[in-house]
Design brief:
The protein is α+β, with helices and mostly antiparallel strands. Among the domains are: 98 residues, Thrombin, subunit H; 87 residues, Pdz3 Domain (Roll); 98 residues, PDZ domain (Pdz3 Domain, Roll), CATH 2.30.42.10. The protein is 15% helix and 32% strand. The strands form 4 sheets. It has a 7-stranded antiparallel sheet with strand order 7-6-3-4-5-9-8. It has a 6-stranded antiparallel barrel with strand order 10-11-12-15-14-13. It is globular, with a radius of gyration of 25 Å.
């Protein structure tokens, strides 16, 4: 749930995990705060007159924005299986060589853990955007509306690269929040955060935009896009997936993370901007997956040390460390050491800003990339590619487990006891696909893929997504497992075309 970085913990805001009995300890610790506004009667020089205007009461009245948005923010509750099974195993050097030494602990039932977050209704027929980490591996998703009606929700699609997910409930005539422009958002502008912190439903807090294009290293996906809006509006565990809105009540971000020493609000919150959210949810609804465009460069921000080392003429932009072979950047003529300064006329301030801009496009889109190479400004017409180094849009089947040609099921306690396995996913049936083509047979129990433990079908999907979206030229599934007769086998399954 949290990632430590120096003295700060950058915290994912999923609601408090509940194993069996939930204890309510929040209300006794609520601290009431008030905002004191002071005015000054001091005069100012004429040239500063424009900045001394006393704001009207309506300019700091957030009631309209809250009213326009609060009814479209929902409470998302999930149930997720905990991976806590353990067994006493006899010593088996061959098993340990392939799979490592199992944990020595007694067998116990797998409990379900409960979590809570928020979501935002974006269509009157029930589409709801939330965070991927809120619903990740959830077996049950329940949505409660602001009017206290509850619905079971189904997962439409996810994008771990941006921590955005789309779910749907069967309902009509629902209130929605209109999308606003996160591009026009200014540092210092008032915003409201709406969500369900600590299961306190329909909570509204106010603050300002503290910064934009923040990269905080919280996402672990291979093609992560981090360009967060930073705000000091109070957000806490349970706010994940909730709305960040402007004073007109328009959605400008999805609240996602906090930076904190305690895991609670300390003044720093982060939201995925709507410039990213709108692209992700539109693609998921239309294609079932995100059509991610790649420029094909590794990059870094420019600091004094880098500027001096390479005699750079600018402190803004994204420095190109390496151009990926066969990528859109290489085809266009971009080289190592270039500084990318503009995309379609939009000035690029940092590597996270570049990620955000490229993330708006799809494979096959053509853009103008301006770079600074020494003293020269060069513009390259660039046709963006997908993760397979072509300009085609990917179908959902190409990005799903269907290409493996297998039906999976998680092994039961009886099978685990019989084979002395701590976990695993069995291949229930096979049809034409990658596994059958590489000699895998029905009944094979997958224990590890690419040296990562496989406890569920979701684990297979997660690794599949990582492999498909990686920049590796050779995409491979190294599948280690066991047949029912105890025979241990490793299959190397190429995932390319």
């Amino acid at each position: 749930m949290t990632t430590r970085k120096s003295l700060k913990t950058v915290g994912i805001l999923t609601g408090v995990i509940i194993i069996s009995i939930v204890s309510s300890v929040v209300t006794s610790n609520i601290i009431k705060k008030s905002l004191i506004v002071q005015s000054s009667a001091q005069s100012a020089p004429a040239q500063y007159a424009a900045f001394t205007k006393v704001p009207s009461a309506l300019e700091n009245d957030f009631t309209l924005a809250a009213e326009r948005s609060i009814h479209a923010v929902v409470h998302v509750k999930v149930k997720t299986p905990m991976a806590t099974r353990g067994y006493n195993f006899p010593s088996d050097p061959l098993f340990e060589y392939f799979f490592g030494r199992p944990q020595q602990q007694q067998r116990q039932e797998t409990p379900m853990q409960e979590g809570a977050g928020s979501g935002v209704i974006i269509s009157s027929d029930g589409y709801i955007v939330t965070n991927n980490h809120v619903i990740d591996r959830a077996k049950v998703i329940e949505v409660t509306l602001n009017d206290n009606r509850s619905f079971d929700a189904k997962l439409v699609g996810t994008d771990p690269n941006t921590d955005i997910a789309l779910i749907k409930i069967e309902a009509s005539g629902l209130p929605i929040i209109n999308f606003g422009s996160s591009d026009s958002l200014r540092v210092g502008e008032w915003v409201l955060a709406i969500g369900n912190p600590f299961n306190l439903t329909s909570t509204v807090t106010a603050g300002i935009v503290s910064a934009k294009q923040r990269q905080i290293g919280i996402l672990g996906a291979p093609m992560k896009i981090e360009s967060f809006i930073q705000t000091d509006a109070a957000i806490n565990p349970g706010n994940s997936g909730g709305a960040l809105v402007n004073t007109r009540g328009e959605l400008i971000g999805i609240n996602t993370a906090i930076a904190s020493n305690s895991g609670r609000y300390e003044g720093y919150g982060f939201a995925v901007p709507t410039s990213i959210v709108s692209k992700v949810v539109t693609d998921i609804r239309q294609y079932g997956i995100v059509q991610r465009a790649l420029l094909g460069v590794s990059m870094r921000d420019i600091d004094n040390e880098l500027a001096k080392e390479h005699d750079l003429k600018t402190m803004e932009g994204a420095y190109v460390n390496e151009v990926v072979k066969n990528s859109a950047a290489e085809t266009a003529g971009i080289k190592n050491g270039d500084v990318i300064t503009e995309i379609n006329g939009e000035k690029i301030k940092s590597s996270s800003h570049l990620q955000e801009q490229i993330g708006r496009f799809s494979p096959g889109d053509k853009i103008n990339v301006q770079v600074l190479r020494g003293d020269k400004k060069l513009t390259f017409k660039t046709e963006l590619k997908n993760s397979r180094d072509n300009t085609n849009l990917l179908s959902q089947d190409e990005n799903s487990l269907d290409v493996l040609g297998a039906e999976f099921k998680e092994i039961d306690d009886k099978t685990m006891a019989k084979l002395n396995l701590p976990y695993g996913v069995e291949i229930k049936s096979l049809k034409s696909g990658k596994l059958q083509q590489n000699g895998v047979r029905t009944g094979f129990i997958i224990i590890k893929i690419n040296n990562q433990a496989i406890r569920s079908i979701e684990d297979i999907q997660s690794i599949f997504d990582e492999v498909q979206q990686s920049d590796d030229r050779v995409k491979m599934f190294s599948i280690a497992g066991m047949y029912q007769n105890g025979k241990i086998v490793i299959y190397n399954v190429p995932m390319g075309k």
